[in-house]
Predict the structure.
Amino acid sequence: MRARGGRGAAGQWFRVAREFVTAVRRIVGMPDYEAHVAHLRACHPEMAVPTEREYFEKFLERKTAGGGARCC
Amino acid sequence: MSKLLWALIAVAGAAGWSVLALSRGEPVSAAWLVLAAVGTYLIAYRFYSHYLSYRVLGLDDRRATPAERLDNGRDYSPTSRWVLFGHHFAAIAGAGPLIGPVLAAQFGYLPGTIWIVVGVVLAGAVQDFVILFGSMRRDGKSLGQMAKEEIGPVTGLITMVAVLAIMLILLAPLGLIVVNALRGSPWGVFTIGCTIPIAFLMGFWMKVWRPGRTMEATVIGVLLLLAALVGGRWVSQNPAMAQALTFSGVQLAGMLMVYGFVASVLPVWMLLLPRDYLSTFMKIGAVLLLAAGILFVLPPLRMPAVTHFVDGTGPVFAGKLFPFAFITIACGAISGFHALIASGTTPKMLRRESDARLIGYGGMLMESFVAVMAICAAAVLDPGVYFAINSPIASLGGDAAHAVDAIRQWGFTLEPGQMEALAHSVGEQTLLGRVGGAPSLAMGMARIFSGAFGEHLLALWYHFAIMFEALFILTTLDAGTRVGRFMLQELLGHVWEPMGRTSWYPSIILSSGLIVAGWGYFLVQGVLDPLGGINSLWPLFGISNQLLACIALCVGTTLIIKAGKARHAWVTLLPLAWVLLVTLTAGSQKIWAADPRLGFLAHAQSVGMQIAAATIDPSRGARMIFNDRLDAVIAGSFMAVVVLVIIISAREWVQILARGKQCVSTETPFMETAYES
């Protein structure tokens, strides 16, 4: 995913669209696998990168343990 | 140049308020209301929140936030300010800011508007901002933890128990709103019912078939949901299907309880999480659409600015303008519940300290604007139609023919056959006595949308609005049940250790059952109440929400005083004093007022007399008396709790200010940010 979106107008649009989707994900509170991988690469290069399925399982564990309060 | 701009904004806002205040008799355009509100928000944000940020709290962009220091790419994660604004708004905005203003429109549109706008600027946004700031400086601590550390262990415990109790009281009227919106409405039942299989499909999509692809699943879910909305019309026109999906209030209440229980027990990915995504999308979409509709149509407000029901004789709910306008509109002006969100996920995501101003103060202004739009939606209806929808059927005289007379007696106009034609035009069997606010809000929204996007779609827009309200109320209901279950498990875990294990099935089932039984009891009581239930349950909800706000403002005041800024502590003390006054007045009136429509105890007494005169079934009467007394006890204990918290807090303040008690800072020590400024 990350590798795509090179130079040129098409690449520019692709980057904008991807940023938009990322923003929507974070607003809604969805897991963001690509951002997590980027975080691991940047801050913890020694750690193994999980697969998308593993990452999602971890995300669900956190959701199961926490409440996720919604206001009135 | 910028001074000129701000002067212009101030003049525009003042012009809006003047038109609202001076016009009497003829309909005013919603444009003036929007102008007054937005002008006030901009001025307040620019100047008052600047004062709060830099004089009172002392935001410091050189200081690293918890998101930067503790970044783990998950809950602690620096997030760009506008994305976080959206995230925070989606978490705080729910049914409250939409329903409360619609109900309070029985006083006319002006009292509610003034409270929503002035209240948010001086109270609600301040509370959210101060608590968000406090939690941000303490690595994202919760309100309960801060109450414990800043004021004392008793307050901490009280806060935790109060949050649980308030949750139960909150869920009942929300459930009642859904029940009343779906009662006798096969279209609505079909659309909302479809969200459950859609959620399962989404759940299996993102868990089993395409792991982690939540966005794909949600896009499919939203498309299916819109298909279900359109399909509902077909269902409502097919006599056999319509018959099968027409339910009574008690049946719907039972279904909601089963739903809440199942959602709390099943794994989150099956039901809870997919529905949360659907509901968040719908919420943001519908709010944006409503804003666009109002700004595009700028509809005239047909409701008078102030109605004669300010004297307390209104049919929608009992009680005078003061204090009940300020209780009925809780969310939108000030909502204690926000303190839980502002000390939950949001503080862990702030990238810079100065972002707390936009998200804490600005986020609440945005919610207030939603409440203003709800007032507009209620006020675009003919007042006669508004009262015909929102008054309990008993006060309308029982049927359509009597309703016309009742409405005329109240001084509004309603033509014979008007309500039937209206109900038919939106595919409903009846709109009379559909209390709870949702149907009238949906009707107002449908008017605005169809004005903007085409008249022939009125029925579709009505059910779109019902679907969007019911969807996110149910999301609050299932998330609330689950959160309540966790709290209860934690409490029960102190009594018997295995009960505290959150993944042990006997404990999950028992605690979920207890929570559902808790709110379900009040829900069923509300459904059976001849006065519509909203009359007793909504004020209890408002009182409990405002009481939580009192606790949050006490914590906020303590934080400010302990930071050595006591001379600025009026920013939280002023709203605290007002909310306290309103809540204690409303609470004591609900308990002790002599009018049986208003006071719980007076109502119990009047039912007792009816039993003695044999005009009411004795077992039904006994149940009503029990419920009245229960409601009185609940209101009384909420008041007692708050008075206790105020006394403990005030003692702490006096010890710091007058007796020179040393306070140790509980803030995480300063660490310089690595971000460039």
